[in-house]
Specification:
Strands 5, 6, 7, 8, 9 and 10 form a six-stranded mixed sheet that branches. A four-stranded antiparallel sheet has the order 3-2-1-4, with helices on both faces. A four-stranded mixed sheet has the order 11-17-12-16, sandwiched between helices. Helices cover 38% and strands 22% of the residues. The protein contains ten helices and 17 strands. Helix 2 packs antiparallel against helix 3 and helix 9 packs parallel to helix 10. The two termini are 38 Å apart. It is of the alpha+beta class.
């Protein structure tokens, strides 16, 4: 699965307690040859390590071990190297498995617990900054899921929608003297009310920034008859035919996306400047980690590609080398940034990823505090 499949409901499901052992495998992967040739070998080795861990665990029965390993073998057989991104996450129990390809790197690890490890999924989704796109016309509407790199059509909550086609009515035309305007007849208004209703359900279930694409009369009527369009952060007033391709739609959206990114960067800089002026600012991994754990962070800004391996000592984070061995007590955290991002989002903070080096003076990560 891709990160945009991680809805709030699915995340709750993944975090639910399961019969022990619930196995989480994570590893970095490579998008292109020749580097990706090593991924299959590393995955087999990781599954072998999981098998050894399961065999050595006295809490795991022989039947449970065999069932989990069978699910892992199925997952490995299904992994498609052509879809590889920057990391792979496999989640498995005796009854199920899930495969996630993530556009953010993750450390190589095996975790046995009674819940799945979700921090890497959550951080990858936050970094991808997913958004919704609604393409709309008088007789059709489609929903698209997008990131900065791609958009794809979504078939959910009734989308795509097509307006019912009525047979021509010559008597009606004779009475009014002409065919009524497309955007003034009641059938079109009702169709766009239905579009608005379906869109509100999507936004309620999975809130994301919304972009609208359509002719000006269509967008104006959607504004008039519904509520959802008012939350849109971007509008492209251009016709969106029902057969528009993902590549063409992304080209049309690109100026709006770039403008939105610029506004977001300015807003983040302003909030951090204000926090510095009001002494409600935290800079650097250790300070931000403490603020997040205490629930004081209102905004957390992280550079796009920052990764840190640390040792937790007396509730502080001590940087260590990436080759430092994991300790039995879990004091070494290879994916502390992802863990911090997940904790910040859980506490209700806004988490944003910013350009590399934009926070170089603050340890690559900063926060505006609530108090």
């Amino acid at each position: 699965m891709d990160t945009d499949a991680l809805t709030a409901g699915l995340l709750r499901e993944l975090r639910a307690t399961r019969p022990y052992p619930a196995v989480s495998l994570t590893m970095p992967t490579h998008r292109r040859a020749p580097d990706n040739a090593q991924d299959a070998v590393r995955l087999r080795n990781l599954v072998a390590e999981a098998g050894n861990r399961l065999e050595a665990d006295p809490q795991v029965t022989r039947e449970a071990r065999a069932a989990v390993l069978e699910q892992l073998d199925r997952a490995v057989a299904e992994v498609d190297p052509r879809r590889a991104l920057d990391s792979l996450v496999i989640l498995a129990t005796a009854d199920e498995y899930q495969i996630w390809q993530l556009p953010r790197t993750a450390p190589e690890r095996v975790v046995l617990s009674d819940t799945f490890l979700t921090r890497n999924l959550v951080a990858a989704k936050a970094q991808a900054r997913p958004f919704w796109v609604l393409t709309v016309a008088a007789d059709h509407a489609a929903l698209w899921s997008g990131t900065a790199d791609a958009v794809r059509p979504e078939e959910r909550d009734g989308f795509p929608l097509t307006a019912p086609k009525e047979a021509p009515n010559p008597q009606r035309e004779e009475r009014i003297g002409d065919t009524p305007s497309t955007f003034s007849d009641e059938e079109t208004r009702q169709f766009l009310r239905t579009v608005d209703e379906k869109l509100r359900a999507v936004l309620a279930a999975d809130p994301r920034p919304l972009h609208l694409v359509g002719l000006a009369p269509a967008l104006a009527l959607l504004d008039e008859v519904g509520e959802s369009a008012g939350s849109a952060i971007g509008r492209v007033t251009k016709g969106a035919p029902a057969d528009i391709s993902p590549a063409e739609l992304l080209r049309e959206l690109r100026p709006a996306l770039e403008a939105g990114s610029g506004r977001t960067a300015d807003e983040i800089e302003t909030r951090l400047d204000h926090a510095r002026g009001s002494r409600s600012f935290a800079g650097g991994l250790d300070e931000v980690w403490a603020a997040v754990r205490e629930g004081r962070a209102g905004l957390v800004a992280v550079e796009e590609h920052v990764q840190r391996t640390v040792k937790v000592t007396d509730e502080h984070l001590e940087p260590v080398g990436v080759d430092t061995a994991q300790t039995a007590d879990g004091e070494v955290r290879e994916d502390i940034v992802d863990e911090l991002v997940e904790a910040a989002l859980d506490s209700g903070a806004d988490v944003v990823f910013v350009a590399d080096d934009s926070l170089a003076g603050h340890g690559r990560i900063a926060a505006a505090l609530r108090y």
